[in-house]
Specification:
494 residues, alpha+beta, three-stranded antiparallel sheet, 9 strands, 48% helix, disordered N terminus, binds protoporphyrin IX containing FE, monooxygenase activity, heme
Length: 494
């Protein structure tokens, strides 16, 4: 009998053409080389070992990709071979055993839940339907900055303010509740809990990297697991309460929020009232994605954008002129106005190039054998694409370290996953579904900050003194190391 041929049969070890690897240590492999800012350390390693490297993170073989061509091999040519996510104890607990979208391995379930989310609440129509919420929340932020600036010359903490803005919008759109009425209340509290979760997920726990018995010991020693479990349970109580509230008969509904949409979809799909009970874990898992993926990415992008704008007075002046010419003395920036702000859009693009909030994208896992730039990749290999490094590659970008929004003048490069030199939202089947939701908030929030206020550094600080260092705590997302403190000066009366 002839043996069945598989298209992607894994070659025998000796025939394999594996990517170059830095030397590794027993047991930990190359883990010690990741450091606290993995996108930076991996860039340095790639300068020595090339744009496709094979590392061993403890027991996990990991291919690290740092060039646009290699990223294209991953996200376009071989997307179907590697569109799964690795399964680790931390993400399993967090996602109710992978009932979410972001961490779920590739499966029929993932295809179905992602489709529901994309069609039901990431669509342009649905995002636009939440416009009045964004307008109200931005107006509240403008008012609170105005009140502050009329009574004080002290700086405002722009970072926390932006966390509060994005979280307030997401809480109302997604959860049908206000941030202030939740336990988290402030941008500061939200920032802290998301940061804690992401640092734990980014660093993962010993159990992921080492054989089970050592992992168990390291986790006990570091206390990571205990903290992780505490926060996960706290969030579960919060999400369950939200689901229960939404099921209360006669509940007053401000609009159809994402929980309503999910509960309705579940009911329609099963056709049986009450069967939605079965799917509550799926609803909570999706809420967890929105909580983790939908707040800090946007807040961090606006935080970096404001820092770059203040650091580059030429850019601030040009952006302010644009928005003020467009709005005039109308006294109101509406969301439709922001569509015309071409320079502001380039500022956002440039911010996402120089400071992508998730510079390592999200890890993928190979499902079958395939090749990247001619190198063999085995099934179960972890694949990390260093998007942050590619977006600063001097072979692709002129003066890559400069913040220069004009580099996008007349350029067709966008972040929709077709330009492999620039992938702040990832690409392929796992690409971020929240792009439109995110960019709508970014444009509208920044347009208002630039229309209503001039922004100055505090205490006679010079732009050269503004510390643009990245935070280095091995988290999934990378904010600025220090909070951005700025003095607002109001230009118009509202
Ligand atoms: C500036 C804002 C944002 C950035 C830069 C960003 C970036 C990313 C990146 C890099 C990925 C991984 C893509 C891949 O693996 O190829 C991702 C996935 C994801 N993002 Fe976003 N994101 C943003 C905003 C949002 C928002 C607002 C939401 C929801 C409210 C969201 C929800 C998700 C989800 C659910 C996934 C997982 C998709 C999947 O695995 O199928 N993101 N995002």
């Amino acid at each position: 009998l002839k043996k069945k041929q598989h298209v992607n049969k894994t070659p025998q070890n000796k025939q394999k053409h594996l990517p170059p690897s830095p030397p590794k240590l027993p047991l930990i492999g190359n883990l010690h080389q990741l450091g606290s800012a993995p996108h930076r350390s991996l860039l340095q390693l790639s300068q020595k070992y090339g744009p496709v490297m094979l590392l061993h993170l403890g027991r996990i073989p990991t291919v690290v990709v740092s060039s646009a061509e290699a990223a294209k091999d991953v996200f376009k040519t071989n997307d179907l071979h590697c569109c799964s996510r690795p399964t680790y104890a931390g993400s399993r607990r967090l996602t109710y055993n992978y009932l979410d979208v972001a961490f779920s391995p590739y499966s029929d379930y993932w295809r179905e839940i992602r489709k529901i989310c994309v069609v039901e609440f990431f669509s342009v129509k649905r995002v636009q339907s939440y416009r009045s919420i964004r307008e109200e929340e931005v107006a509240k932020m403008v008012k609170s900055i105005s009140d502050h600036s009329s009574s004080s010359v002290a700086p405002v903490d722009v970072s926390e303010m932006l966390f509060a803005l994005v979280a307030s919008i997401l809480f109302r759109v997604g959860f049908g509740t206000s941030l202030q009425s939740s336990n988290y209340k402030s941008g500061k509290a939200i920032h802290k809990i998301i940061h804690d979760m992401e640092t734990m997920l980014g660093g993962m726990s010993g159990a992921e990297y080492f054989p089970a018995w050592i992992g168990w010991i390291t986790d006990r020693v570091t206390g990571v697991q205990k903290k992780f479990d505490r926060i996960t349970s706290e969030l579960d109580v919060f999400f369950q309460q939200l689901v229960d509230d939404h099921l209360t008969p006669g509940r007053k509904q401000e609009h159809e929020d994402i929980i309503d949409v999910l509960l309705r979809t579940l009911k329609e799909q099963t056709g049986v009232v009450g069967a939605a009970q079965l799917g509550h874990a799926s609803v909570k898992a999706v809420l967890m994605d929105l909580f983790l993926g939908g707040i800090d990415t946007g807040a961090i992008t606006m935080w970096w954008a404001m820092a770059e704008i203040v650091k580059n007075p030429r850019v601030m002046k040009k952006a302010q002129q644009e928005v003020r010419n467009c709005i005039g003395n109308k006294g109101l920036v509406s969301e439709s106005d922001t569509e015309q702000l071409e320079y502001l859009k380039k500022i956002i693009k440039e911010t996402l190039r120089l400071h992508p909030p998730a510079p390592m994208i999200l890890p993928r896992e190979a499902m079958s054998h395939f090749k990247i730039q001619g190198y063999d990749v085995d099934p179960k290999t972890l694949i990390l694409v260093n998007e942050g490094a590619i977006a600063r590659d001097p072979k692709i970008w002129n003066d890559p370290e400069e913040f220069f929004p004009e580099r996008f003048d007349g350029s067709s490069v966008d972040f929709k996953g077709q330009h492999y030199e620039y992938l702040p939202f990832g690409a392929g089947r796992r690409m971020c579904p929240g792009i439109y939701m995110a960019t709508t908030t970014l444009q509208f929030g920044l347009a208002n900050l630039l229309y209503w206020f001039d922004w100055k550094l505090p205490n006679g600080m010079k732009v050269e003194d503004l510390d643009m260092e990245e935070s280095a705590d091995a988290s999934l997302t990378v904010p600025m190391k220090n909070h951005l403190l700025l003095v607002p000066q109001k230009l118009y009366q509202n």
